[in-house]
Amino acid sequence: MEAASFQKILVLTDYSELSENAVTTAAAICQKHQATLILLYVLRDVEMEIPVDMHHLVMDYTKEMKLAAMTELKHLGERISEEYKIEVSEIVAVGDVVRQIVKTVKEHNPDIVLIGSHGASGFRRLFIGSTAYSVLKHSTFPIMTVPGKGEWSHFRNILFPIRNIPNALEKYDPIRPILHKDQSTLHILGLSPESEASHEYELFGLEEKLEKRLREDGITYEVSYHRCANYADIILKKAEEKNIDLIVIIATLDMKLKEVFIGPFAQQIINHAKVPVLCIKAKEPVAPGSPAATP
Predict the structure, then answer these.
(1) pTM score, whole prediction
(2) What is the pLDDT of the chain when averaged over all its residues?
(3) pLDDT in tens, 26-69
(4) Strand order from edge to edge, sheet including 220-228
(5) DSSP states of 102-166
(6) How far apart are CA 254 and CA 261, in angstroms?
(7) pLDDT value, residue 16
(8) Residue 120 near residue 260, CB atoms below 8 Å
(9) pLDDT for residue 291
(10) What is the DSSP letter of 172?
(11) Pairing of strands 143-147, 8-12
(12) Burial 66-97 (b: 16+ CB within 10 A, else e)
């Protein structure tokens, strides 16, 4: 297998419990790959919250807040660098969180971005929050959502759902470094609608293409197929049955509900998964309501 590794990983922190878990997960990944960890903290611009004629009064205050934030972030970076023996860089940005994330990613080109995620129930099961949604919407880079509870220093078992959609195998390349470093087993889960058995032939073709690459890369894998009505339920069930450490999905967005909705299947997986979820945004836009608007 051709050597594969990450060079830079970016993680968003706000010092909450959710982001703390994302930071430690990112640090553990960097340690294995000897990658640089980029800590990003976004300080909301207070000028956006006051009248224009008062902006001059808060300029010094904003500078002081940024200086204090950088001091605190450097302390965190020093602690992580010492504990994990990795290179850490710290960035404090001022302004809109999503814009600053996207801007930082464009400037530093990390391999993966980590963001803390939360669980939910009832109607909230369809929502992951405007920050994660908007980052997915405005970016093309892989995003790993990390639950607030649990520890992940290795990804031994990776769940890889596939179905007959455009770019179905697009999400393989971003996980090759993980498969290589962790000596992971890739659990391929072929999914097809209960009423569309004819699509299974194309699904088998996709799986054969993926298997060929896995053999070339020397990756251990296993394959299973399921006809089902709700892909998310099957994915979450298999994740528990197989002791999965990481779920990899293609993320497609439903633009109708704007800043908090990415479609029921991907949304349900992210909100209810007990493990990290790596979201790879499809290169081609998918029309809302189309069959491709699922993992």
Answers:
(1) 0.84
(2) 81
(3) 999 999 999 999 999 998 875 445 555 555 555 566 778 888 99
(4) 88-94, 36-43, 8-12, 112-117, 143-147, 277-281, 246-251, 157-162, 185-193, 220-228
(5) HHHHHHH--SEEEEEE----GGGGG---HHHHHHHHH--S-EEEEESS---S---EEEEEE-SST
(6) 6
(7) 84
(8) no
(9) 44
(10) S
(11) unpaired
(12) eeebbeebeebbeebbeebebebebbbbbebb
Chain position carrying tokens 């972030």: 73
Identify the pLDDT of residue 257: 40
Give residue 14's identity as a one-letter amino acid code: D
Amino acid at 226: H
Residue 5 to residue 188: CA distance in whole angstroms:
22
- Residue ranges with strand state E in the chain: 8-12, 36-43, 88-94, 112-117, 143-147, 157-162, 185-193, 220-228, 246-251, 277-281
Instruction: For 188-235, write each residue's pLDDT tens digit.
Output: 999 888 776 666 778 888 899 999 999 999 999 999 998 888 888 899
Q: Please report, as a single letter, which amino acid is at residue 203.
A: L
| Dist CA 267 CA 55 (whole Å) | 39
Q: Which amino acid is at 67?
A: L
- Residue 219 tokens, joined: 């990756």
Residue 98, C-beta contacts closer than 8 angstroms, at least 6 positions apart: 130, 131, 134, 135, 138
